[in-house]
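Predict the 3D structure for this chain.
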Amino acid sequence: MAAAAAAAAVGGPQPPQPELPAPGLAVDKAATAAHLKAALSRPDNRAGAEELQALLERVLSAERPLTAAADGEEAAAAGGGGGPGAAEEEALEWCKCLLAGGGGYEEFCAAVRAYDPAALCGLVWTANFVAYRCRTCGISPCMSLCAECFHQGDHTGHDFNMFRSQAGGACDCGDSNVMRESGFCKRHQIKSSSNIPCVPKDLLMMSEFVLPRFIFCLIQYLREGYNEPAADVPSEKDLNKVLQLLEPQISFLEDLTKMGGAMRSVLTQVLTNQQNYKDLTSGLGENACAKKSHEKYLIALKSSGLTYPEDKLVYGIQEQSAGTSTLAVQGFAGATGTLGQLDSSDEEDQDGSQGLGKRKRVKLSSSTKDQSIMDVLKHKSFLEELLFWTIKYEFPQKMVTFLLNMLPDQEYKVAFTKTFVQHYAFIMKTLKKSHESDTMSNRIVHISVQLFSNEELARQVTEECQLLDIMVTVLLYMMESCLIKSELQDEENSLHVVVNCGEALLKNNTYWPLVSDFINILSHQSVAKRFLEDHGLLVTWMNFVSFFQGMNLNKRELNEHVEFESQTYYAAFAAELEACAQPMWGLLSHCKVRETQEYTRNVVRYCLEALQDWFDAINFVDEPAPNQVTFHLPLHRYYAMFLSKAVKCQELDLDSVLPDQEMLMKLMIHPLQIQASLAEIHSNMWVRNGLQIKGQAMTYVQSHFCNSMIDPDIYLLQVCASRLDPDYFISSVFERFKVVDLLTMASQHQNTVLDAEHERSMLEGALTFLVILLSLRLHLGMSDDEILRAEMVAQLCMNDRTHSSLIHHIPENPNPKSGIIPGSYSFESVLSAVADFKAPVFEPGGSMQQGMYTPKAEVWDQEFDPVMVILRTVYRRDVQSAMDRYTAFLKQSGKFPGNPWPPYKKRTPLHPSYKGLMRLLHCKTLHIVLFTLLYKILMDHQNLSEHVLCMVLYLIELGLENSAEEESDEEASVCGPERCHDSWFPGSNLVSNMRHFINYVRVRVPETAPEVKRDSLASTSSDSLSSLQSSRRPKVLQRENSGTAQVFSLVAERRKKFQEIINRSSSEANQVVRPKTSSKWSAPGSAPQLTTAILEIKESILSLLIKLHHKLSGKQNSYYPPWLDDIEILIQPEIPKYNHGDGITAVERILLKAALQSRMNKRIIEEICRKVTPPVPPKKITAAEKKTLDKEERRQKARERQQKLLAEFASRQKSFMETAMDVDSPENDIPMEITTAEPQVSEAVYDCVICGQSGPSSEDRPTGLVVLLQASSVLGQCRDNIDPKKLPITEEEQIYPWDTCAAVHDVRLSLLQRYFKDSSCLLAVSIGWEGGVYVQTCGHTLHIDCHKSYMESLRNDQVLQGFSVDKGEFTCPLCRQFANSVLPCFPGSNVESNLWQRPTNKSIQDLIKEVEELQGRPGAFPSETNLSKEMESVMKDIKNTTQKKYRDYSKTPGSPDNDFLFMYSVARTNLELELIHRGGNLCSGGASTAGKRSCLNQLFHVLALHMRLYSIDSEFNPWRKLTQLVEEENSQQGNEEQQPEVPVLYHDVTSLLLIQILMMPQPLRKDHFTCIVKVLFTLLYTQALVALSVKCNEEDRSAWKHTGALKKNTSDAEKSYEVLLSFVISELSKGKLYHEEGTQECAMVSPVAWSPESMEKYLQDFCLPFLRITSLLQHHLFGEDLPSCQEEEEFSVLSSCLGLLPTFYQTEHPFISASCLDWPVPAFDIISQWCLEINSFTERHAEQGKALLIQESRWKLPHLLQLPENYNTIFQYYHRKTCSVCTKVPKDPAVCLVCGTFVCLKGLCCKQQSYCECVLHSQNCGAGTGIFLLINASVIIIIRGHRFCLWGSVYLDAHGEEDRDLRRGKPLYICKERYKVLEQQWISHTFDHINKRWGPHYNGL
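Done. Predicted structure below.
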């Protein structure tokens, strides 16, 4: 804000005023303030006041070097002193001090707040704030609440939602004008004023003196900073500068408003006091600077009127003379009369638009006393000028907030609203010129919605400030700037102007703030009534609406495709909906009762006047211009909707508001033109106009537009049809649809206006339109609930829908006050009546379904209405989809097996006003058309389809349902005046005309037609079949007296009717033989000559129907009247068997109805059926036809061949897929290797999925498994407690990671590394709990060289894949599963393994020696073969899969021990994960499928090969310590300085197992494996005993020591846990392990007394994890099945499976774990050797010694965090939470579901080395896998390495739907099933396979 530099001058040159001496500045501010306050409190305070004035004058002086506002920098620099900001701060400090009157400012604020009568909340927010709206509590639809008030009020069970504010808003809590009091929160329920004490006078006294000066100072800055822009474009840069500088001042004012009611009322006084304003602004006399700013202000004011100074003259004269305000619509620049000069500076064009001068002037309502709307503004108070500058500066956010914060003050609210209205025209003018019109629009609406939602206020300003006049005038003014001449109808002479949809004003929706305000005030009854009563306003408004009538005209391109597809139609549809339709709905909502008839009459009257003017302006007579269409007829629609309301709600007599016949004929033309154009667009006749014309056709019927567009149009046509002559109407329809020429009996015709390929679809279009017109009852008698039900059924029949898409698709009444709100009570009750809810389900492919509604069976049975579906479908395919679903329902329920036709549905009864509509069904024209079409279909003429027949039958059935009651009078009335086609049918009742036989028909045919060649009377129907191409229309209307033959011409008929109606002389009308058609329709000259031929027909409609029945069923005499068998049928006609079926059923139903309606018909049907119909003789085929037939036949054959090939291919593919695999579900049982069972085949055979060859894997051409390597930290997330951790939702709840498996292992390793030798430590544990490498395969194999060429081809493939080939990623060529490496298969045979597994009976001692020898052999790396190269490269891949920090744990970087540790840990990770996938135990046995697709065998080969490169020194090999007694050497005491090795009892036994096995040459022998397991089990068991001994207390220990010692000499002492335990205790007692326990006894000891059972259980639990891993390993290495068992017997089953249990073991007495022990050396010796190591360590470190012994071996399965039931709890806590790194509230907050960390998604604030925070966290927390919940979107996003995908949401609303981005804001609840699926995918590492849509994140998340 440029003005802020002003305050800088305090430090600049001092103003030369002889005020307080200079030292006054340095005087303590507080003292001065206190002194002044005291002076002012005296009764005679004049002196004090003057002193204060002088001080303020100096402090707030406006004399600033701001002259060069354009160069803001200069100005800022000139403000000497403490830089540009210092002075303002000084001034503000002074103000604060003065306000507080010497006290502290903070205390002052608190004191004022105490007097706040908080009746209203009034919290103001800006865009993006999260607020709530409760429809149950709201009176105004715009009502909103801040989160705090919402949560403190009680809204349970209400219809509320959360939303993100777009334009900003304010909280309405406490305002009973806008919401019901029941919804107020606790704070604002108390009615104020009573219990709040009165404000003491002296508290705010200073404020009353200081604030006027302060605000005046602010205004001067604003004046100063504003330069009237030269090029009509305020340079935004300058404005923003001024505003930036003023920031502190405005913030200060804003803070004042927040002090509560007391301060607000002072501010209100200051802002609205006119005297203050006058004194301060006029007293500028001698101050030059002030003068200058005043001049600037005056210049700015000049341009504020709608008129410009130079036009003022014209208006001035006019005003005085007329005394009323007149608004010239021809352009405000009356002086020049050009439209262009609305804004002299905007457009300078003086030419064009000459023709517009003829427009009538529009009188504004005469009550407008002043010309204020047009005039320059005058300001009388600070408030007015502040608002003026707010507008000039284009609504700065801070100013807006300040002005709104004041609103809780009632007096201010009224004053401000009036000021706003006074500036309304100026606001819109500024908006139109603004560059930032979007932002500005939002801010305007932010203000206006607060003012105009309040009915009381709106009424007051309407009465006192002519709000309605202003709004309508301004709207008109706005649209006038973009009018162009209409080209509709008569391009040259048209006087009509329409808005140009290409203009920015419409394209950018700039008008919306205005329109939205207008709609808002019209929603108030009192305001709307004034509008409807004011004739002048209605006239002006209709004028405004007529600007949109006929806009965006489309002309059909006939030659070239249009070059540039304009997209203006968006603007046009939006404009009609917002500017015309929504105000219309607003007005309609107040015309609901009988008393409001007068309003409807007014609107209808002016609407018709406007329409008449429009017809005159476009020179419309009776024919619409060809090939053009506009979808925008708002005047027609206003008229239609008010008519409908009048009949439905106000009981008005329809005829009293209808115009004469001629006007009705004109009215129907354009809506009918639209219906015909829709059919043309769908028939592809407009393709050269591009896609946008299809877009228009779709928008016209789309759910948001249909009830303001197509519904009123159809209704208007229904009204016209019910009042006009039916023959005229029917013929108009066929003529509009251009199918008149098709309706001839002749087999050939010529159509002059339509290509042959379009004829069929246009005919279908015409008939479908007639069916809709006659069967739609939306405005003809249906109640609101019936309409809702019909709409809902139509939508559900097209597709199952979610709740939100139903709400979206059902046309809501655009005005929210109308009562039918989707989601309202009636909506829900109708929904539950017609639909069943299908809960959300999962599909194995991972695609998640939402909760859907599907129609109930009885809805399909009785309510499926194809007509409604056709009317409401945007895409034609939806109609097909509805029919398919209907067919499926009939098949499933066994009602009809074939392909059904659309069912005929009974309609609600017509409202009596519209009875005339049914005359259409009983007019001869329609009957002739139906007869002709039936005949043509029977004769197989061209271009007729099943759809045509279906519609024809539908119309006949409608006619029978709605026939006149008595038939006898019909027949009597035949002798009425003769019509030209009386000879066709005797009367006009369909029932009787159905049986009328027609013998001969004379037709006009081309001479080439076959009918001509015969002698005309002898011609029979069989000869007249032919299918040559087009002919000419039967224009000649001959009245010959042959009497036998009938001729019929639709067009002539229609012309004649029109002339009769327009009352030309009747004689002339009769003579018209060939009516003149307009030249545009004339036929091409080359057409062949027409001649007359007479056809012999001899059919009636009934006979045609019966023959059709035969034709459809393909049998002769298939129809047999059902009543001959069962006379009952005639009595109870509703027979369910006829409800559903195909054409045959339809014909039967119609014949039955016809028989029911008249005895004559019944008789005739019986007669026809008796005559056996002769078979139709075969056609004679001409040569030309033969040619086309051959062609067809050949095509048909080709098609069949193709189908056959495709089918064969499909079946082959299917069988292949069945054998190969099922892509979607990752758990399918696919055997990995396809091997044969015969033992003589020695080698494993692999199939390569690329080249298709199969063979063994060999050294030089190895085969590999397709694998995916990924780093995983899932294991590290296991915890030792049962209940899962919860996601923190308060500050207190935090998650600490130290009880996770990863943390515990980390601590252990670092502890070991502190005290023991590094290399030995690295053998004593496993790593990989975090960032371990998991290997998985899809089970397919390929040659490694094939794979290389495959990767090469992927690299050259330019298509963007979802993976990065450079990182080695690919998808399996067969099953498309994601992979990134190939694991070579070791060449090996199956038979060998059989040999290896034969048990040898060597003793355990021998085996131990063999193992040691085998391990001692150095593993030479095999020679350089392809296989070994691949082994190396895959090892490299495995290493690179995880980050360096997860591989390097050694103290010396790069030591080989590291690699060694890493390699056996990879094996450990994969075994542990498989165990987790099996549910954490092996009870289910081999049934689990994980094994079948496992690659552990191959992985072991690769690892073993590499491990054997690192041989362990035999001294250091733990194997020796386990199997040999070492002689006591004193060496250990000798080398103290060297760290000792890790004692055996501290080793992790599972790690030892893997080391031992991987050190052996592969393949391993089974007995060696068993030997290793036995040895290790002894160590494990000893560890268990030691841990047990540490866990229990001193007494227990001594007791056990004693009992065990007694049994030491028994035979199986080595296999008794009591003995061993007592021995362990006695050995360890020699050291310090059990000492100093007294201190911590309580901590360690479990109070439970140990019983033998509990001890046995403890020992078993301790050993189980090892047994499980070992069994898995055995299963993979030797292919043995895992036995299944109960949980309690898992230990015994596994130990016997591993060969630990002696085979002769008796199972009777309870199982004891110790019986598995098999000691290689005497137990007591080796145990004492092991204990010695411990004792020597605990000598020094007893504490740590104990900690290391107790290993927690029982980890629970990993889980994601537990989420709260309701999403709101997460949202409220996290969406405002600040980030711990950057301490800002993130724009996109996210939270990790694994560990609960809060992160900024995409936040640049937390970026580190180009990695954004989420990506970084995914690497640290999940080694590259992250699962984040996006707080603002409720969706879960998965990061996997360098890719990410949106997973979906685990929170669904009450209807089972996701709410992505919280757009709907409904309450969301956790879906446990979905969360389980997410967790399952995380644990099983299948994100990559199941989720399909991955994209790179470039580290930007």
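DSSP finds 72 helices and 31 strands in the chain.
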